[in-house]
């Protein structure tokens, strides 16, 4: 396999290079917590290498230092994002935490610039200052003026959670200057967008969403250059925010079908968005490329498709709409095989607060929908009857 292979080929074959030598077809799940070290001199060298952030060493030594099953997923994801390496974590939030710790705290910086809106958990983590950082929230065109000498990281999400606003990554990277930019690529997935190609230093995924794809695995991952991956692995060893090998296995397996799932769900989302726009009980639809969508200029050069997430404002009570649905699952999270809907103001973005939500373009009544793999007409019947009944 080469880096010139197509996305679907890389998705199927990535991270499987050692399986032939092992004589197996499915990647083994290595559940060992410790590894025999008959030669303690060599074992000590390996431990020292891991502690320095090495990507490989003679023995895993101990499961918090390294796991071969997780490492296969990391190689596969890095190939999809076009980066040297990737580093997996116990959850998307553990991944966000590790990037702040590596980019800010390990570098002696205390300031973060964040472009709103962001995932509610990321927003709240930065607001609380729990990690010892201070955060300035800005619009995408205000990043340059917010950067200070002690700024260690710029954080953005595109398409943004939950209103699908698009941000020009290369433009924010330009404004950030020497400061590394973290792009949360959870919504777009590597199938539709590779932020590293636009200059992002860190590309983050909540693997819990599209990468796993079946709503049964919690995990996070950061794709980046080798020199940035080493400190992330050091943080992971010290804080213990490791991904369980079973999670690594499931995320790796999820990657094989990722392009097909995203392409299918995207077709459905585009169709639902168009139909919702013509519905008498819908005030406004947010979907990349639809009339009035913010930042639509980056479609094409930055984002290769419009994605499988959409949001809309019903004319009636959003909770009544959700309550009338039968097929569509009322739940937080996204990127699963089934279609999910949720009310950000009540759930995912509750802790952001009404004022900050409104200011960042997230109206009170907005509903967020993650298109799944069902037949689009069945989804439409469900949405249509719920909107009419509410
Ligand atoms: C869910 C999510 C996260 C957090 O990931 P967890 O795996 O739940 O910790 C971060 N960013 C985005 C965009 C998300 O949707």
Automatic annotation (TrEMBL):
Coiled coil feature spans:
none
Q: Name one GO cellular component term.
A: cytoplasm
Please give the InterPro entries that the UniProt record associates with this protein: Cys/Met-Metab_PyrdxlP-dep_enz, PyrdxlP-dep_Trfase, PyrdxlP-dep_Trfase_major, PyrdxlP-dep_Trfase_small
Q: Which residues carry this modification: N6-(pyridoxal phosphate)lysine?
A: 209
Any one GO MF term held by the record is: pyridoxal phosphate binding
Q: What is its EC number?
A: 4.4.1.2
Which Gene3D superfamilies does the entry mention?
Aspartate Aminotransferase, domain 1, Type I PLP-dependent aspartate aminotransferase-like (Major domain)
Kindly name one Pfam family recorded for this protein: Cys_Met_Meta_PP
What this protein catalyses is: L-methionine + H2O = methanethiol + 2-oxobutanoate + NH4(+); L-homocysteine + H2O = 2-oxobutanoate + hydrogen sulfide + NH4(+) + H(+)
Q: In terms of domain of life, where is this protein from?
A: Bacteria
Keywords of the record, alphabetical order, are: Antibiotic biosynthesis, Lyase, Pyridoxal phosphate
Q: State the family named in the UniProt similarity comment for this chain.
A: Belongs to the trans-sulfuration enzymes family.
| UniProt-recorded name of the protein | homocysteine desulfhydrase
Q: Which organism is it from?
A: Amycolatopsis marina
Instruction: Please name the taxonomic classification of the source.
Output: Bacteria, Bacillati, Actinomycetota, Actinomycetes, Pseudonocardiales
């Amino acid at each position: 396999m080469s880096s010139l292979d197509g996305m679907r080929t890389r998705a199927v074959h990535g991270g499987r290079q050692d399986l032939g030598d092992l004589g197996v077809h499915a990647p083994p799940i290595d559940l060992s917590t410790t590894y025999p070290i008959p030669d303690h001199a060599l074992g000590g060298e390996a431990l020292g290498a891991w502690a320095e952030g090495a990507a490989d060493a003679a023995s895993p030594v101990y499961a918090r230092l390294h796991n071969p099953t997780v490492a296969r997923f990391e190689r596969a994801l890095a190939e999809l994002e076009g980066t040297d390496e990737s580093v997996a974590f116990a959850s998307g939030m553990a991944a966000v935490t590790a990037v702040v710790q590596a980019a800010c705290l390990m570098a002696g910086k205390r300031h973060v610039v964040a472009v709103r809106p962001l995932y509610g958990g990321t927003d709240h983590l930065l607001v609380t200052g729990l990690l010892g950082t201070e955060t300035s929230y800005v619009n995408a065109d205000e990043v340059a003026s917010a950067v200070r000498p002690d700024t260690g990281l710029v954080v953005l999400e595109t398409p943004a959670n939950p209103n699908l606003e698009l941000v020009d990554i290369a433009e924010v990277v330009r404004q950030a200057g020497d400061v590394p930019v973290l792009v949360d690529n959870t919504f777009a997935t590597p199938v539709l967008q590779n932020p590293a190609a636009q200059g992002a230093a860190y590309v983050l995924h909540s693997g819990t969403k599209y990468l796993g794809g079946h709503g049964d695995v919690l995990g996070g991952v950061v794709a980046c250059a080798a020199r940035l991956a080493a400190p992330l692995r050091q943080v992971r060893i010290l804080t213990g925010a490791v991904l369980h090998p079973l999670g690594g296995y499931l995320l790796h397996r999820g990657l094989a079908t990722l392009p097909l799932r995203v392409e299918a769900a995207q077709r459905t989302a585009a169709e639902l968005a168009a139909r919702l726009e013509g519905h008498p009980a819908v005030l406004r639809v947010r979907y990349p490329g639809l009339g009035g969508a913010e930042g639509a200029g980056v479609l094409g050069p930055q984002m290769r498709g419009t994605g499988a997430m959409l949001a809309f404002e019903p004319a009636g009570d959003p909770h009544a709409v959700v309550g009338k649905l039968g097929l569509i699952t009322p739940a937080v999270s996204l990127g699963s095989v089934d279609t999910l809907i949720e009310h950000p103001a009540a759930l995912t973005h509750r802790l952001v607060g009404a004022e900050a939500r409104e200011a960042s373009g997230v109206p009170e009544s907005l509903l967020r929908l993650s298109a799944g793999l069902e037949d689009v007409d069945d989804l439409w019947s469900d949405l249509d009857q719920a909107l009419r009944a509410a």
